[in-house]
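Dear colleague,

Following up on Tuesday's group meeting, I ran the structure prediction for the two-component complex that the binding team flagged. I've pasted the input sequences exactly as they went in, so you can double-check that nothing got truncated or mislabelled along the way. The structure tokens for the whole assembly follow below. Feel free to forward this to whoever is handling the docking comparison.

Inputs:
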Amino acid sequence: MRRAAPILATAALFLLPLAFMDARTYVTLTVAGLAMGMLIFLVAAGLTLIFGLMDVLNFAHGALFSWGAYVGFSVALLLNQRWGWAAAPSVPLNVLLLAASILAAMVVAVGLGILLERVIVRPVYGRHMFQILITLGATIVIEELIRMIWGPNDQVMPVPLTFQGSWDVADVIVLRFPVVAIVLGVLVYLGITLLLTRTRVGLIVRAGVENGEMIQVLGHNIYRYFTRVFAAGSALAALGGVMWAMFSQSVRPAMGGEQLIFAFIVVIIGGLGSVTGSLLGALIVGLSYNYVAFLVPKAAIGINMAIMVLILLLRPTGLFGAGK
Amino acid sequence: MPPEPPPAAPALLEVEDLHTYIGQHHILQGVSLRARRDAVTVILGRNGAGKTTTMRTIVGLLRPRAGAIRFEGRPIHGLPPYEIVRLGIGFVPEGQGIFATLTVDENLRVAMLDENPESRDRLPRIFALFPALERFRQARAGTLSGGQKQMLSIARAFVNPNRLLLIDEPSKGLAPIIVEHLVAALQEMKSQVTVLLVEQNFAMASALGDDFYLLDDGRTVHHGRMVDLVHDHALKKRYLGV
């Protein structure tokens, strides 16, 4: 019951905008908000585990998001220019293009993530100031690499035909791609939860998030597990990057940095180290951003800061924080 | 100094002139001790004497600046903690170090090492020692009482067939009746494993201990048989205030 309370309270609060708009607009905004939330969740899930397990503040996480988006962009562009997989009115080809873009992005991000962890992060364990400086530095390098390889300007992301446009459900317009993003987000959340609760690696990671020192004196090499978590987090960031590129139909070198701000807000709201907290936090951020952007456009970013401050006042460790 | 404990059995663990720093502070300034096989060796001393630091250095959480630690004759100082404990050392830290968000069962499972398939077979023995743990097996460890948490922490170190247990202040913050239960359980365990115990509660220390080492200001200042210390009121008063 105590675990359900924040969820119920939040759900009730999010019915409030219905008082200021008609139901159809509300549904459209809700779908967009949930989709945005799920995409932020993909970025935040890795961030929260990386911080939870090793106390590492990884500001380069956003750069992995950008890299994922660009690798996915290149693959999608290639497949579409060669064989027209995005423009083809074929569901299997369209899905295949999305899958290939995601897979390529994740593979590259895992490699880049392991490299980052070994070379950049490992020498600065336990020193937050150094972590912030060096991962911010790495972000600049990685983003400049993007500008060198792909150019500094915005580019248009090919979106497969199947995911364009909308469905008309009982007179309510529901955009297609956000629905895909929501489904994918739910699947990723279930996948992470199963990994964490049903496998031995998951058990050790959960224990390590709570007390990293103790897990070492129980005979587990925490660094090995951390590298795996870092790699998995990088892959999720890249997945988020590809999905966001399709969601916004564009790629930009600095796109990761903007997402990172949202992701950090989400990690703090949800509680450091909690994947469920991150999901809830991401949905809160995504939904309130969309409602407020419609009602009071100028307050859209501010509202998330306000929510973060409010939640931290009520629960200093975040919604699901272990409070370490 | 009283004479060396007679070397009836060879030492399982030898600590020689250990020096450990925490930050700039020179905490251990020459700690030496030997834990005899199949005996309970107690480390005594006032708050801040370096007892916990000694334990944390042995298990690899702190790196000694100088000195040597040998387990079964093999030097282990400088190894990372996860390699040291895999040699057969169980660690029960001060404050228990249990995983509050995990269940009792998960706490035990996370401690079972893959290379010890017999770990699972040890569970019945552990539950016989600590029946409460079996009753609350599926409960979150954070909901246990202080005594049960301590039992879980000890059980976790005992779940692998370890040859040495390091137990840091198990009685801290526990009610006297709970401490009695702990003493009874440890009495039963001492036939199966060598124990190095840090304990401020002198009644508990003298009930369990075979040998003692006295630390003061980060140095070993005395050692001998526990039975002799029990009657040495001058020594107890000088270093322990009892």
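Chain B has one domain: 11-239.

Cheers,
M.
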